Description:
3 domains, 36 strands, alpha/beta, Pectinesterase_Asp_AS, signal, 17 helices, aspartyl esterase, eight-stranded parallel sheet, EC 3.1.1.11
Amino acid sequence: MKFNPNYKCILVLIAICFFTRVSSQVHDKSWQKIIHDKPDEWFKSEEAKNYAQNVLLYQRDIGGWPKNVQMHHPLSDEEKQKLLEKKKTNEGATTDNEATTQELLFLSKIYRQTNDDIYKTAFLKGIDYLLEAQYDNGGWPQFYPLRKGYYTHITYNDDSMVNIMKLLKALIEDSGLYSIKPSQNQLEKIKTSFNKGIDCILKTQYRQNGVLTAWCAQHDEFTLEPANARTFELKSLSGAESAHIVLLLMSIENPSKEIINAVNSAVAWFEKTKITGLRKDRIYNGVGKIVDKRMIPDETAPAIWARFMNLEDNKPFFCDRDGIKKWKLEDIGAERRNGYAWYRSDPQMVLDAYPKWKERLKKKSLKKHKDELNITVAKDGTGDYVSIQEAINNTKSFPYDRVTILIKNGVYKEKVKIHEWNPNILLIGESKDKTIITYDDYFNKVGLGRNSTFYTYTLLVEANNVVLKNLTIENSSGEVGQAVALSVFSDEVVVVNCNIMGNQDTLYASGKGKQYYKDCYIEGTTDFIFGSATAFFENCQIHSKKNSYITAASTPKDSLFGYVFKDCKLTAEKDVNEVYLGRPWRVYAQTVFMKCDLGNHILPKGWHNWSKPEAEKTAFYAEYRNYGEGYKPKERAGWSHQLTKREAKKHTLKRVLGDKNKKDNEQWYLKIN
């Protein structure tokens, strides 16, 4: 047979077509579709394991992944070597365009089928990456480690932060979506992270002329205000990103008052800004490529929302890469007009879901406990409220009878304020060590000028006749300067069996009222019990974490008493050995220690004048029958006092805090139940 020279060409073409078709079966299917569309049993296949090797290779040492990578594509040896080098640099790790969150879902799916710990380790490392990347204010940047430019902004764009929050929420709820369970310690961090994220979302909701509206695609990581991204992505209100934020808020089982308000406000804004009677039309060329987009009138068209709306008046605008606002889509060039989604319909999902959400809230409200005097707060939703502050806010103002708020065990990451109009409250924890109220504000973080210390509290009491019992109240910011855990400004406040934890300025016992601290553990570094109140500390452990000063009283000149410590035990960290009992914040400071066990960390001199020689004449610092290695009365500062038995009788609990005209069992400080 005579050889046909064209036959070879035909064979080559057939081979090319065959291999192109086989290759396209993989390459034409996106990485996202593989993760979401493949059946469960596929994830135990050799093909899935091969893809998983790439996923592990692309993961940076910090725990995150780069974006826009088709991780199922084969890698050459040279490409693998480059990825090993990039692992160490952490280059490109991000949560943008579903990066990291989608890889974590893949690892969870393959672990469910294989039970191979290599996938579990990578998954948990990825979770740690998300936790590390979060800002203190609760937001996430687009890239972490941080890249210069708009990438550092809190990023709602393309649902970056919402995707993270949905992942964390699924882990907290143990929804079954993820087969890998974090450790208890990591789970607690995840819960804290999620709550911080919700707090950030609430704080970044934009107020337009005092009215809550929606969110921007990016918010400044410091001011939380809307921020610019790329030149054609100017700060604005965003319909699409805002819709997915609201859907997240609506998915929360027991929403707080603030969340409900945020959702209602956003829905009102969606209704206000929806565009009807307008349809997006696309013009295609002969090969199916979009060559033009235009908006045409159509009364039957479903509602749509602009991608970007003016912060001042919600007016839609459009931009070219020159960053100049245009008010019509046709006024920008073809490249941006056709290459960007300027209109979206996502808010319609919120409007469709909203009626059922309202009905669900209504049913929960009908089931809510109606006993106004006995309220329960529980993180898991089994109580009347999930937030301590929400419970306080919903109590009757100036009640005649005691209102008891029982707080179930859990970590409550919130700033709590008992307002002046909320007296007669008993805030009682289920157990002292497991009912934890914590926050992490500190002087420089608050940044409100020279008085920033007083805004850093975790729990603030401004109401009279308040009892705090069986609680841990903590400022968790660490050793970063002034950071208050508990502030008490009011009168007749009892704090019993509580841990009060922090570093500098832990307990601000202030105001002109009277306060009683019994069976408490109080720790700190410098001046960690300070303020102007008349306060009696009985059977408390006072623990110094650093060589410094315990008290810094600022007793007013006309007060009969300042701080009195009776039957307390003063302890310290192992390496702490130079601690003063106190120094005068104001020159009329009064502090007395009676029958207290003083550890050897207390300096022989005992008291410091804070470089105020005049305070030695006006301050009253005294002791009575203390004991322990730190009690050295003969070596005390010459201007301090050792009380006689008669003088000590003036400093009893009843004389310091009580009413001499009432019987002992009628005194306010005994009414702690």
